[in-house]
Amino acid sequence: MSTIGKLNLDHLVGQQVGTSVLLNKLGHGAMSAVFVAFQKTLKRQIAVKILPKSLMTEKTAAFFQQEAESAAILAHPHIIPVYEVGETKEFLFFTMQLVKGNELSYYIRRTQKNIVPSKRFMPLKTVITLMLKILDALAYAHDNDIVHRDIKPDNIMIEKHSKRPLITDFGVARVSRTTGKSDRLLLGTPMYMAPEQILSGTVDGRADMYSAGVMMLEMLMSRLPYPPYRTAMDLLKMKLSLKDRIFQQRPSQVHPVANRALDEILFKALAFNRDQRYASCREFASQLETYLNKMTTPSSAR
Q1: Cα–Cα distance for residue pair 235/214, rounded to 1 Å
Q2: Which of 55, 118, 119, 168 has the most beta carbons within 10 angstroms of its beta carbon?
Q3: Domain range for residue 232?
Q4: pLDDT of residue 184
Q5: Start-to-end Cα distance in the chain
Q6: How far apart are CA 83 and CA 81, in angstroms?
Q7: Cβ(38)–Cβ(23) below 8 Å
Q8: For the chain, what is the domain count?
Q9: Which residue has the higher pLDDT, 123 or 63?
Q10: Does 49 show up as a binding residue in the annotation?
Q11: Angle at the Cα of 180 (from 168 to 146), degrees rounded to 5?
Q12: In this structure, what is the dihedral angle of CA atoms 104, 186, 210, 106, given to the nearest 10 degrees?
């Protein structure tokens, strides 16, 4: 299958797309690319995501349209807003806020590579503060019947100066009020995927909660404590067989500040059985906020 990385898109620079002009290519995934553009009407730089028709299938077109529509429904300070959706002779497109910063995954990798061993873990207050904002955005999306289904560090942008987290890439999101059932496709990223996504059963906001919990675990430990595995399919099988034993360590065992109380809060969100998790991302956030408020001094969190 051809991918967008094999296409020469240089000829698109300078092309008019809706109310904007494409300036330069910012990056690409398997099927879509993102350009920096200048929006002439409001005289600002924005991002434009395109799906070339040469790569388009009924499925990829549906996901692309779904990403634009899902994000457009949502107006939240921690969700990247969509401005415009359209089509040219060559591609489908939508425009959105241009975030000047990096993915959360970049900061996790940078922390992991710190030359000082004691600094190879993100500060606990930073992790919880980020999680509170992300969980608030997810709770808002769920209130609007949108389940993201692919929460992971690559889909969280961190603004360079404000350090504000922004959720992006609603390409595999679903409107939960339609049927509540998955479409029997394995959608999401195996390392962060909730067990019910693997089983292709009903998926609701608790799947996003699980994925956010895995992401928090990675922020605290600078890695994910899975047993050794060779392929993504091996990992998925282990998740189903080991269930609540899939994670081999807890943050309190490695993070210099995290304690067992935090382990308990986090691992409730990571329960294999979703009925044993928090009822909502808002409830998970409430527990984290209470924990954060008790951190009046560094020693109180030990």
Answers
A1: 14
A2: 168
A3: 101-171+188-296
A4: 43
A5: 52
A6: 6
A7: yes
A8: 2
A9: 123
A10: yes
A11: 25
A12: -10
